Amino acid sequence: MPTVIVPAPSPPPECNLAPRDVEQFVAALAAYHAYLAPAFRRPEQGTWAGVYLNGLLSDQSRKTIERIALTQGVNVRDLEHFIGQSAWRSEPVIVRHQHLIADTLGAADGVVLIDESGVVKQGHDSVGVAPQYCGAVGKVANCQVGVYLGYASPKGYTLLDARLYVPAPWFADDQAEERALCGIPADLTFQTKPELALTLLRQTVARGRLPFQWVAADALYGDTPAFLDGVAALGKWYFAEVACSTQVWWRQPEVGVPPWSGRGRRPTKLRLRYPYQHAHRLDAIVRRIAPQCWQRYVIKEGSKGPIICDFACLRVSVVRDGLPGTPIWLVMRRNVDDPHEVKFYFSNAPTRTPVATLARMSGARWPVELCFAESKDEIGLDQYETRSWLGWHHHMLMVALAHHFLVQLRVQLHGRAPALTVEQVRLLLVSVLPKSVFDAAAALRMVRYYQWRNYVAYRSHRKTRLQRLALSG
In the structure, what pLDDT confidence band is assigned to residue 235 with cuts at 50, 70 and 90? Predict the structure, then answer.
């Protein structure tokens, strides 16, 4: 095994910022609002967007619509309407958002990251909620699941776009009323998660705002041939994890149209010329890799030191309808501490792509997990309390805008504070954001609001219960 060249350790952190630098964050946020405001059709919508962004970036513990409205001193119902019911178009906002991301992080070899994230929900009234696997709790739970696009480059990472996954049972004929109550578009049809991801990816390419070459995804997408073909058709290079049971030929088999026997129809379809040339599972192939074929590479410098793995790369043909598909890369990543732990990836990158580049790409998807963690912990991605189709997508768009603003500040300050994290940027921002006065009068207003809200809910539930008792009697 060749000796791996371990990079030098990261230097001690520096933070050469002065209070006046932090005080400029307020003006930067105002400029951010001003750039986005024209994307909204009506001026008051741009104003409400600013209120919601401020709330997401604030220091309050819960980033619900109600809590944001009360602490920002605005009417709760008005803000609920803006997020959950107002039919403002997301597309103009997304276009401006992706233009900003291109300015902040854009790189020709940028990576679009694809993953899903779930939020546990109580009850059955929220749009798209169903018992399904939820990564947040690691099991099947009653939850909503979204498919997300992220973006990463050497400059940083952030969220791009999102689409709610609506499970197939929601499209049954007897669910029409529930779909209407949640505001699901009448022309919406069922799409799998890979289909949703490919739709979002095509829309991103069509906008033409964001430079990228790679698309990184986990095995849910890598095990879907139509998804991989769709990425390749866009002229992009996928790097997707695949299951160990996937079958490939590591030597291209010969194919041809069988000769006509003289009876029946003449053969027209390609077949394997030599049927004994069987395809092999990936976990069988890895056992046949010679020790000298493994190369050790540093994937990246992590928070606990360099992340080092062994790699072996082959050109293989995936089984497609019993025949060999277009030759692609098979990348095998072996854990140094436990050689029995091996992950497999497919990539349609060019034949001359260096193994070091493929090794680096095996860690390219990790930033999307950081996007989720930061957006949940700092901005409230999972703290929404809206049940509608519009509400879910409006909230996720505003979260993406808020996260990018923090990333934008971090990139701008990188020269003087290279170790600054998104969490630390928000800590600095919170220190200078104007805070509403919370005195006795404000507390009483909040108490009266909660009491009245709870009373209205009590009357509604009581009425429903009495109606059910009357029907059962």
Answer: very high
- Residues 254 and 71: their CA atoms lie apart, in Å, by 70
pLDDT for 231 equals 98
How far apart, in whole angstroms, are the C-alpha atoms of residue 216 and residue 108? 15
User: Which DSSP string do the residues of 263-291 spell out, in sequence order?
Assistant: SSSPP-S-EESSTT---EEHHHHGGGS-G
DSSP SS3 for 318:
strand
Pick from 80, 71, 36, 40: which is nearest to 384 by CA? 80
Structure-block tokens of residue 83: 């997020």
Helix axes 90-105, 389-412, angle to 10 degrees: 20
Residue 68 in contact with residue 52, Cβ under 8 Å? yes
Tell me the pLDDT tens digit for each residue of 184-207. 999 999 999 999 999 999 999 999
List residues bridging with 240 in a β-sheet.
217, 346
- Residue 134's DSSP bridge partners are 139
Instruction: Give the pLDDT score at 2.
Output: 47
Q: Which of 424, 152, 415 is nearest to 300 (CA)?
A: 152
272 Cβ partners below 8 Å, 6+ apart?
253, 254, 255, 322, 323
What's the whole-model pTM score? 0.91
Q: How far is CA 376 from CA 28, 51, 70, 190, 381, in A?
A: 23, 19, 21, 27, 5
Distance CA 422, CA 252 (A): 48
Rounded CA Rg of the chain: 26
Q: Which residue has the tokens 């108490």?
A: 447
Name the residue type at position 172: A
Angle between helices 43-57 and 422-432 (to 10 degrees): 110
- Residue 320 DSSP code: E
| Per-residue CA distances from 9 to 29, 38, 304, 402, 414 (Å) | 35, 45, 10, 32, 18
What is the H or E stretch that residue 10 is in? none
How far is the C-alpha of 146 from the C-alpha of 396, rounded, in Å? Answer: 9
3-state DSSP: the chain helix, strand, coil percent, rounded to 5? 45, 20, 35
Task: Give 376's DSSP letter.
Answer: I
Cα–Cα distances (Å) from 117 to 35, 47, 75, 414, in that order, read 29, 29, 31, 29
